[in-house]
Amino acid sequence: MDKNSLHLWFAYPDDLLTESLARSCAALLSEEEIARWQKFRFDWHRRESLTTRALARTALSYYHPIPPEAWHFRANAYGKPVAEPDCGLRFNLSNASGLVVCLIAEGAEVGADVEPIKRAGDILNLATEVFSAPELAQLKALPDTEKPDRALSLWTLKEAYIKARGFGLSLPLRRFSFLFGGKEGIRLEVDPAMDSDPGRWRFRMLDHVGHRIAMVAEGPAERDLQVWESHPLLTPPTRLGATGESWFPLSSVPFLSELKREPAPVG
Ligand SMILES: CC(C)(COP(=O)(O)OP(=O)(O)OC[C@H]1O[C@@H](n2cnc3c(N)ncnc32)[C@H](O)[C@@H]1OP(=O)(O)O)[C@@H](O)C(=O)NCCC(=O)NCCS
What we know:
Layout: E1 5-11, H1 19-26, H2 31-38, H3 43-61, E2 72-75, E3 81-84, E4 89-95, E5 100-106, E6 110-116, H4 120-125, H5 127-130, H6 133-140, H7 147-165, E7 176-180, E8 186-190, E9 201-208, E10 211-218, E11 224-229, E12 238-241, E13 260-261
Parallel strand pairs: 1-11
Antiparallel strand pairs: 1-5, 2-3, 4-5, 6-10, 7-8, 9-10, 11-12, 12-13
The structure holds coenzyme A.
């Protein structure tokens, strides 16, 4: 993988409504993963979990020549999975019942979050619990019609940042801010006690099939984003054309876009 590129993979839990495909995915899992997966009570949750595991394994195998079932995963002290053998690849997973994402880079930490856009109103109701004072001030100044969308963007960006750092919710959510506006478009401000070099992070958002996805990755400033999906899961992947997006902090051009499907070979 080119060190300047970042690859985002999509998979769809509803693919596993097909029993034979679900069985093929389960065959890729370790015994421990199977035990964890079987504990989920609801079918939709089991499909989401199995899709997540199968996507991580199959996507990583496009970049390192070992079969999907050969990967091992260990979690850091806060639960962030790391792939073994360590071949320099870094990845992060996020799941919702309609969409699972896996963000992959070489030699750079990454974090991703996916949320259904229809959750925006619920997230707005949690604003005072999770957003910082500067974020809340910017939110309050918006027209009511724009508040749910901003809350959704803030939530996914903040979640992607704590996932890129790998510390999960042990990082205090109200001590860092994603601030909108100005020539940087969106900028990240962090309590220096929490992150001595916040300038290394780049972030980006896009919308896909009713979900907002936020990505946070260590520099460089201009990264090439490739978007892939395997749909149905385990079939050869298709590259999706991503248009009109930007990495932040950089400029104030529009940053959300819908994706168009474009078949392309893996490269
Ligand atoms: C666990 C947490 C890292 C993500 O939780 P989440 O939003 O429920 O779940 P997501 O679907 O985005 O991500 C789950 C995946 O992240 C990965 N993950 C787990 N711990 C992680 C960590 N410390 N760092 C990075 N990734 C982690 C795992 O692969 C996990 O999937 P798996 O359990 O199927 O293996 C943590 O941030 C959390 O509990 N968040 C709760 C939501 C919240 O309050 N967010 C506030 C936003 S302002």
